[in-house]
Structure formats: structure tokens, C-alpha cells
Request: fold
Amino acid sequence: MKLITSIEDLPPLLAASVTPEEKQYIAAQTGLPFAVTPHFAALARPEKDDPIRRQFLPDPRELLPDPFALDDPLGEHRYRAAPHLVHQYQDRALLLAAHACAGYCRHCFRRVWLASSAASAPEPVEASMADFQPELAYLAAHPEIGEVLVSGGDPLTLDNTALEDLFRRIRDVRPGVLLRVCTRIPITEPSRLDGETIALFVRFHPLRLAVHINHPRELSAAASAALAAGVDAGIPVLVQTVLLRGINDNAALLAGLFRDCLDLRLSPYYLFQMDLAPGTAHFRVPLKQGLAIYRELSGLISGQGLPGRPALPAYAVDLPGGGGKIRLHDNVIAGEKMTDNGPVYILKDHSGGEWQYPVF
Ligand SMILES: *Cc1c(COP(=O)(O)O)cnc(C)c1O
Ligand code: SF4
Reply:
């Protein structure tokens, strides 16, 4: 997969828009690498605050100190059942199947994990990883797991031979287990979701896609056609959106995005409040503002989406420190207190457990 990794290779207007500060930061090569597909770069406009540009162009604000930042924002290490398997919920497990992505989202919550593996090789590494023996042995020994999320990185950076091999080996140990392929590539490189790939997915039914989409302009003609072809072939497609400051923190814009998804027969699934990954604080929408946006959004779109599914995604956060996902609504905030890092809300989970999330 061809990636743009230097400013000179961006479309000319965009390349000309890169500021000296941005250039200097990109040249310093700290943290998550700069890489974007030509398709996604072509969707960007040269304005500094353009919602597409901001998602892939490194921003010196990534260096701003964030006292709340966590290297493992989801607290996943304690649920690592095997080196590349996270088992946090009884009936679902998440396989880190690939180290690379087709370009890097500046708001990525796996940035520490990706930066450590991708810094030396920003290009996708085909069939990069281990043979998953410990992961498969764990799946074999845990029949309560009914769904395997195939994630990463982006699993569609693997070629179809590697993907098919992986799916087959999962199904060899766990016949009939539901597969959920978590990917952003239908948006960043729609040509990867071609007829052959869709046919591969169909052969591994039951399988669904969870696609990361943040802004209506990401649904290009090519992306829309690829996703609709997947739906036509009978593959359910869920949409996961990250609430991002200055990019989609607007109820009318989000309502438009979810309507566009429904028109393509994609199901809005989650709207995520930002995780506390380092270098991403400038993308964080304050929780109170997120709740207000979500309240307004609920009034803007219909309750009914695709058959059996709501049109409105669940507003949720993966609780910092390993509390898992909780849905966010006004009653979740049980209080507020001051910590060494600054003010935090106290959030209550379903079982009464208390967690913290920054006020700002
Ligand atoms: C999000 C997540 C899941 C899936 O949760 P759903 O609510 O079914 O989308 C499973 N495992 C891990 C570790 C997760 O982070
Ligand atoms: S596609 Fe996902 S894992 Fe990859 S950089 Fe974007 S958010 Fe991170």
C-alpha cells in the first residue's frame, strides 16, 4: 500500500500549506510517524483547521504537556490474555492482528503501541506478526468467547492471503465464532475493500466490519461505493466515531454524518469520548460539552436506524485505567474533585465502581 510520508509528496496546495512549525515538528520525527494515503490526503483542504488535514498532519501541539496522559489509556495490559490478545469482556476478545495502519490518525489511542512498532517502519508490514500460537491456544481454551475483534493497527494492512490464513486458524480452534474486523482502511484506502476482499469476508460469515469514520467528507464516492458493496454482499457494517475538538464537535455535523451512514446502510455504533493517549489533549472535547452535543444530537436524528438498530450511536468512553466502556449520560457524573493533575469528574460504572475523567 502506497503511503505519503514526506511533505513534498502531498498534493501541491496541501504541501504549500504546511507551516514552518509543522515542518520542524515533522522533521523531528518524535512519536507517531507521519503517513497518509494519497486518497485520504486528496480529501484534505489546505486550511490549517481543515477537519481532514488535522487528522493526519502532525501538529506541534502533540508536544504540549498533558498531566492526564496515560501510555496505556485503556488499561489493557491487565487484560492481556496473550501477547496480542486482550480479553476484557466475558464473551468478546480483541486480537491485535497487525502493527501498522494505512496512515496514522493523530488522535490515535494506540499511539504509544503503534509508535514503538511503527517508528522504524511506517509502511505496512505484510503478515508482520507472529503466528499467534498463544492467542489461538487461549481462544481454544475459552469457549465463552463468542466474538473475536480483529484489530491492530489495521488488519487490512495484511494482504488477503495473510488475512484468510488468520481467519481460518481462528475458525479452526473456534468454529462459528463471530469475527469483527476493526478498520479505517475503507475510508483511507477504499480500493483495499475490493470485490476479492469482500468475497473473502463473505466466505467467513458470520463476520462484520467496524469502520472508523469521523467526518462526512471522509465518505468519498470511492469509500461509499466500497462500503455499499460490502453491505450488498451481506456484510453488516458498524461505524465508530471519535468525538474530536474542532473536527466533529457539532451536533448538526454529526447528525449529517450518521444520516449519510444510514443512507449507505451502515449502522452508527459508538461515538467515543477521547481516551487519554499522550499528545492528543488538543483533540479532547470537554465531557460536559460532549454530553450537551449528544443531547442535541438525540433531538436531531430519528430513533430508528437500520432494522433492529438505533440511528443514534452510543456515546461512550473507555474508562481510563481499565474500567472498560461505559455509556455517557448526565447521570454518569457522580461528582467532581481536585487531583494533583487538575480537576476530574467522578464517573460511576454499572456496578457502582468509581472512575475519574478530566474536566477539561
Ligand atoms: C471495545 C472492546 C470490545 C468490544 O466491545 P463492544 O461493546 O462489543 O463493541 C471488546 N474488547 C475490548 C478489549 C474492547 O476494547
Ligand atoms: S486507524 Fe486506528 S489504530 Fe490506526 S492510527 Fe488510526 S486510530 Fe490508530
Observations:
- Residues 7-63 form one domain.
- The first strand starts at residue 80 and ends at 82.
- The first helix runs from residue 12 to 17.
- The pocket of pyridoxal-5'-phosphate (ligand 1) is lined by residues 86, 88-89, 92, 94, 149, 325 (CB under 6 Å).
